[in-house]
Amino acid sequence: MYSKAFIPYGGYYSSPFVRWNGSLKAENPVVLGAATARRWFVEKKIDPTVLDFLYFGQTITSPLTFFGHAYAAAVILNREKDIPALGLNQVCTTSVTSLALAANDVEMGTHGTVYCLSVDRTSSTSILLAPNPKTGSVDIENIVLDNFDRDPSPGAGLKMYQTAEKVAQEVGITKEECDDIALMRYEQYKDALANDRAFQKRYMFPVEIKAGKNVKLIEEDEGITPTSKEALAKLKPMEPGGVITFGSQTHPADGNCGIIVTTEDKAKELSSDPNITVQILSYAALRVGPGRMAGAPAPALQKAINAAGLNVSDISQVKTHNPFAVNDANTGRQLSIDQKIINNYGSSMIYGHPQGPTAGRAIIELIEALAVQGGGYGAFTGCAAGDIAASMVIKVS
Fold first, then answer.
1. Domain extents for the chain?
2. Torsion sign (Cα): 295, 296, 301, 303
3. Pick from 342, 351, 345, 344: which is nearest to 382 by CA?
4. Could you say which residues of the chain have pLDDT below 50?
5. Whole-structure pTM value
6. What dihedral angle (degrees, nearest 10) is formed by the CA atoms of 42, 59, 387, 16?
7. Which CATH code for domain 160-202+277-396?
8. pLDDT for 371-393, tens place per residue?
């Protein structure tokens, strides 16, 4: 449980998320993420030299990954101040865990103001070539696609979506239930587009890319697939007897996001509205049994809520990383949470999953959803590859 870690209201951004092989497929994620963060600091008129440390989340190897953390810190601060940085990778929960590490730093007084930047590009995926010393041949791995096809737990022998099917079978979740949740998530995302994208414009910051001799701004999510109850009902499960279709799971995407974590006084100073306070209350991570990735978010959320000294009934908004509708169905069942308060204004199932930035955008949307309703307690929970999940509880007042 934290008592000293705060996020300045408005002290964060998420880029639009762009579907796999879309407008960002040729962009180096390290360069793009660092440049976007630098532009954000300049536009917000926040002096980046206030930063003491940088956590740099990236889960998919790209050129510059080796020293991406140091590169990003130098670009963001324009070498006006040199700060240490750390790169980290916890796959889908990378950015929420970076926030927890930043909160630890502030809580302990190690650093006063920390920036958490997460970047990823699932497009144009790096290919790992490694010599096999036993056979003399070359082992080849597509870092994204090959790992979607396997669970990292030794002996599990499942593809990622099959870990969700396993949980669905254990709990009794049906295809119809998954379809209903997928449709609800799409309708919730449409709420974020109302009134000329009023909700998204509270936090979304465009990325700049070169288009020939010109500069092009990517200002909105790309690659959203409209859906309906009838369309979802027609889709066949990915395997016989299963519950998951292409309509009730997420898709790979590209993007980045950044969040400042600091002390209460500094948060008020940097806030776009000093009357709104955003406090990090708790963080929890755990691992469940092999091949049960979709089952991890519920107990992780319960653990974080307990750590904050709250009850589930105190939480008025929940955000999840939901690569499969089974994740939300199971979380709702296990903790008796109404699906209507889960993922208001959108989720990774609809706008895509760039990996590292996914949880960060969800937490940013959680803060804004709480601000829209006038404050309250909110929580994020999401799975990461390997039957792991991480959760965080936020208070907005």
1. 160-202+277-396
2. positive
3. 342
4. none
5. 0.97
6. 40
7. 3.40.47.10
8. 999 999 999 999 998 899 999 99
